[in-house]
Amino acid sequence: IDLDAAKKELEEFIPHARNISDSSIRKMAGRDLMRFKQFKKQGVSVRFGRFSQRENDQIRKNVEEFLSITGIDSAEKLLFTSRYPEEKETINRLKANYLFCEKLSEGIPRPWRLIYYRARKIFDPNNYKGRYTKEEKEKLKKYHALHGNDWKKISEMMSRSNLSVAMKYSEIKSDINYGPWSKEETQKLMQAVEEVIRKRIEKEDAESTSSFTKSHRDLLIDQEKLCQKLPWSEIEVKVGTRYWRQCKQKWITILTKKMTKGQELYKGTKALEAKINLIRRLHEMELEDSNEVNWEELRHVIGDVPVAYVQAKFYKLKVTCVPFWRKKSFSEIIDYLFEKKLPELEETL
């Protein structure tokens, strides 16, 4: 494979392809490039972010069809083959003979690796075991002391998924503070965010040929940089007393306050107006899935706020106002809010 040519072709579908490792580019050139081109011909864009219900259903369908073709008797054996050492060779041979990679990703316009991880999350029986007991938390600390970040090994010992044990450990590894943020903690958070953003800018500068850009970088970190995805696990380590989700929520609060110059945009009459405008705009969009929402456009419905702030407000709206919202599709949730909640909000206003 000509790596430069593969990167150039993949860049059309994945803007950050130049930053992906060579080994990953080789895999993507084999597994994804042809699929991406076919989707492009159909007028379908490559997608990222949260999987839709439709995509989850397609993954389930693809897995079930592959099981029926090969005779492998469970999704766990197919996706967690290493748990079955005696059958591993046979299963891997069937996966190769019946083009597992191609079959699993059928009809889903996403990188294969993300589809595979999603399938593992859906079908892992260790992924839905409820809250951790006190004994499990102590075991997790003990196993981490022995095996470090070998989450695969720890997950097998705990009979929990890799993701579950890694996330839980990030919450319990230190004396996490759940109370109000102190001035020192807030300062640490802001410093940590600044460090990771500056590091990202320096990397971009190293790759940039524009001397003007480099000479003016220190003058301004633009709004887009402040709002985009940040490495929260790294920031968590720098803050020390909060886990990553707390850091993210606090940063959104800080950013919102800065961007709105301290105005209360979501209280009293303004809160009612924001909810009404948000519901109306979402209904006008006539979308079938939350992944299709242009949150960047929607944030101006509330004011000059971060995208994550708008997403959080919408989440709270559907959870508090829509009964059995988990069982409803995105379009059904919007219709319910428009037909039932909107008249009530307008009357209150």
UniProtKB/TrEMBL annotation:
<dbReference type="Pfam" id="PF13921">
    <property type="entry name" value="Myb_DNA-bind_6"/>
</dbReference>
<dbReference type="GO" id="GO:0005730">
    <property type="term" value="C:nucleolus"/>
</dbReference>
<dbReference type="InterPro" id="IPR009057">
    <property type="entry name" value="Homeodomain-like_sf"/>
</dbReference>
<feature type="domain" description="Myb-like">
    <location>
        <begin position="124"/>
        <end position="172"/>
    </location>
</feature>
<dbReference type="InterPro" id="IPR001005">
    <property type="entry name" value="SANT/Myb"/>
</dbReference>
<feature type="domain" description="HTH myb-type">
    <location>
        <begin position="124"/>
        <end position="161"/>
    </location>
</feature>
<protein>
    <submittedName>
        <fullName>TTF1 factor</fullName>
    </submittedName>
</protein>
<dbReference type="InterPro" id="IPR017930">
    <property type="entry name" value="Myb_dom"/>
</dbReference>
<dbReference type="GO" id="GO:0003682">
    <property type="term" value="F:chromatin binding"/>
</dbReference>
<dbReference type="GO" id="GO:0006363">
    <property type="term" value="P:termination of RNA polymerase I transcription"/>
</dbReference>
<feature type="domain" description="Myb-like">
    <location>
        <begin position="173"/>
        <end position="255"/>
    </location>
</feature>
<dbReference type="InterPro" id="IPR053078">
    <property type="entry name" value="TTF1-like"/>
</dbReference>
